Amino acid sequence: MYFxxxxxxxxxxxxxxxxxxxxxxxxxxxxxxxxxxxGYAQKIQWLKLNGHLERLAPYADKYTVREYVQRTVGEEYxxxxxxxxxxxxxxPFDDLPERFVLKVTDGCEYxxxxxxxxxxxxxxVRAQVEAWQREDFYRxxxxxxxxxxxxxxxxxxxxxxxxxGLRDYKFHCSNGEPHFIxxxxxxxxxxxxxxxxxxxxxxxxxxxxxxxxxxxDTPVPKPKNLSGMIKIARAMAAPFPYVRVDLYAVGSKIYFxxxxxxxxxxxxxxxPDEAEITLGNLINLDAxxxxxxx
Length: 294
Prior knowledge:
This protein is an alpha+beta fold. It folds into 3 domains: 1-32, no CATH class; 55-59 and 161-289, D-amino Acid Aminotransferase, Chain A, domain 1, CATH 3.30.470; 80-158, no CATH class. 29% of the residues lie in helices and 21% in strands. Strand 5 and strand 6 (177-185) form a beta hairpin. It is globular, with a radius of gyration of 19 Å.
């Protein structure tokens, strides 16, 4: 695995097509076949090369997507925004609340969670945030929705649910209709993930990465506002052939997290083998040759 990733780091100069083939092999150890892809991960690789994902840039950006959320489902579902800045030195730390979350607007998992500002190591946070901003995430993953993104820093209100953390409810949607709910907990510590249907029944679909099983160690109760979350996911997903709508539930409130068009950059292989086909069936490749109504 480390050898494959080392090769990948040296290959960033390659054009998109050979890089994506190499990327898939380096991350999964499998050979990519795109002539007639059927599995979920391989279809996502196809989208990266052929899905015209650059048109989705405003919806993948963590700041500009807020306008879409506001006009689609309403401002009340947005996590309260504290500020947005082009560079780290612009952040007025003295004015920030004691708990907050910093996010870099382009890319994936570029988040810093502050639970106690008095213990904040500003130099360490600066080094991390500036490293994220220097990274050309498009060159790293070849997800075209990030190709023209402007890297900014946003600060949002810190959220916490009754678990003492923040459960992440990820709705896999096809043609505007939610089909599966992926539940992730402890994403930045002891990541666990599980899959449910819309009736909150456990589904035998597991990611191949080293995630624990939420139901095996920490069963997740059905959210009281699940029907409202499904309604919001359906509205948010309506224009897109396939999208994962990420939501949070804090008390009686529902909050929007993000829209994800190529989850895991197509490197998470789901088990058992049939699961890849089940999830792959959510992605109709022909739909990506048509204009989107946005």
